[in-house]
Amino acid sequence: MIIKKIEITNIRSYKEKTTIELPMGRILFQGDIGSGKSTILSAIEFALFGLGDIDANHLLRIGESKGSVLLEFESGGKIYNVFRSLLRRGNKIFQEEGFLYDNGVRNSYSVSELKSKILNIIGINERSQTKTTSTIYRFAIYTPQEMMKNVLTSNNERRVEILRRAFGLEEYSIAKKNAEKFSAWIRTVTKIKRSMTNDLGNYKKELQNIQNITASLKDEIDYIKDSTVNLNDKIQLILKKMLEARQMKERIILAESSIFHLQSTLDKNLKLKEDTNLELGKISNELNDIHRSEKIVTDLSPKYQDYIQKRDALVNVTGHASQYDKLLLEKVKLESSINSEREIFRSNIKTLDSEIEELDLDLQRIEDDIENLNYLKKEETLLKNNINDSTDFQTELDYVSDILSNIRSEMISITNEISKQKSELDSVLQLRQNAVCPYCKQKLNEQHILEMETKFLQSKDFLKNKLDKFEKDLETNQIKKDELLKGIKQVETKKLELQKIQIKIARLNVVLNNKQQIKSKIIEKAKNKKLIETKLQGSYFAEKLKELDELDDKLNKIYSYKESYDSLSKIVNDYQKTNLDSTFVEHSNLIKSKQRKIEEKKIKEKSLLELDNEVLMLSKKLDEVKVIFRDRQEVENNINSLDSDKELLENELMKMKENLAMRKTEHDNNLKQIELLNKKIGELEERVDKIIFTDQIGTWLNQHFIPSLDQIESQVLISVKEEFNRLFQKWFYLLIEVGDIDVEIDEFFTPIVNQSGYHLEVDSLSGGEKSSIALAYRLALNEIIRRMVMIEDNLLILDEPTDGFSKEQLVQIKYVLEELSAAQVIVVSHEKELEGFVETIFRVVKESEKSQVELAV
Is the pLDDT of residue 388 over 70? Predict the structure, then answer.
């Protein structure tokens, strides 16, 4: 198998779809620990075999609802694409149905079916189990670091068990267990058979007894059959009578139903007759209303004709009246526009007068300020001459402040020194006679204590004199500092005054510059005022006044239509207030229905006559049916009596049939038992001959077959161990320079290390030596399993093979990689030193909890 490409989506630290195309040769995935390198190997294994023993929670990225892996690989010269995905539903994660693309054709498989299909494609012959991955793949192609540690650190029995399963040797154990089970079964069966042959005489005696009982049962069955026939005849006679009675009852029931139906129909017809009479009365009333409407229409007809004439005339003049209203509105708007514009012009003239007046005042103020400008400039010059530079003041102030700070610091130090000496003297005075002095280490006596007191007093006087001198210096410098601060304050006050005057001068300079602008504005506004006055007094409004006159002429021409409209509108409105139109139309419509109402009355009168005839007929038929219904109780009693007799006879017949069935069952069972006993007797007679042969098979299994399996398995394991030992030494000596260290594999496949003739524990070796043993063990295991299961030697995956190697040992990996015969070798490592030993390098980095893979150029 050769891996061509892998696409990973939402698997562990891979979020977006990450595509990696893998070439042939030696490939390195290099990155820091935890960057996501091993996730690529887990994704390959998941795509091939599903979850197996991997926890889905550790595979699907946290926070994502779906993840998937698409793997493209080559096997047997054909290209395959396998796809698997995980789906989160609530708190559980499920493995969905997978797909396999074979020559571009997509086929869907269940989880276990897809695993079996992949094992068959890559040539691994092992039983497919849902909850585990492929054991041969794990040991022949890719062995995870933790799994390799588990093999090496397990106890001897556990290690041998794991490797036997990997080597495929557990088939011998299975065959041995099956043979032992078969042998035990043979012993049990033989024991049972022997006990059964002892019962042969009892079976023959029991057969004779059952044959006698069966003959007696046959006679009893014949008698019961005759009695059953007699009872059946009696029941048939009763059933015939019951049939006749039930036919009579059905006629009565039919009569009862007819009574209900006839009575219901009669009631409906009577109700319909009553409703028809009511409708005839209603139609008569409506015809009377129509007669009154005819009189009302005759009275209203002249007024209605006048209303229609006036309404039509109103419609004719409505257009001219609307035109008049429209022209009048235009005239009002035009007059309003002219008056509005005139008012705006007058308002603008008033505003311009006000602005010109204000600008004149501003111009006068500027003239006054110009006179004040000369005075301010003189004040500015005077303040500049009076202000001394304050820089010297500040420098001298900083100097005096430093002196004051130093004096205070010295005074504090002197005070602390006096306190310290006083404390030391007090601590000595508290000690007893002949005690050791903590400072000079001499024994204390009165002379020594007196010397210490004198020394303290002399030192104290010296320090106090020094303190007094500092206090005088402090007072002198403080006075000097206060004078300097006062001088600086005066200078700052004069500077502030100068700044205020300079601001005023700057403002007046700006005002002076604005003088010409104000004059220009006054001239411009005066021109605007004159222009507006010219418009107001000139021909500006002539066109609009002319338009106003034209509107007056048009209004005068159509004024007569407006008058007619107002007059006709009043008359029509007066008619409408009396509801003349609706009243006339309403009564006219009512008159139109007169003929229809007359026809309806005739139809209803005819229907009433037909209902009278039908009511008479139904009453006569109802009386006839009631005569049949009177015999109901007599027929019912007869049926109940016959039914009771039939039930008694049927119960008796049932008991006879049950007795007959019991006897037949007993008879049939006896016949079967006779047949079974005959068969058992024949079988037992045959088994006596077969027991000897079965014993011989059991003896052969125990004495020959099972011991042979043990011997074959032992020989195969020894052969595997010898080849494994050779391969282990080969890879180890490639990794470690030949010296005084020898390694070998014992009978439990445990690595044994010898140095200078002494046995060493693996844990006592250096980190690099332990890693070399683990890698040599892994490579030997991979190679020997590939040979034993006969799979293609074209893919090998190494997970962190140099973990714990020193820089010098990393060089040896080059020789190991060159020695490997696989066409494609995938190495996962955090060691950058391996980059020089491979043809293709992929860098794996992790940023913000997301892994990315980049091909290094």
Answer: no
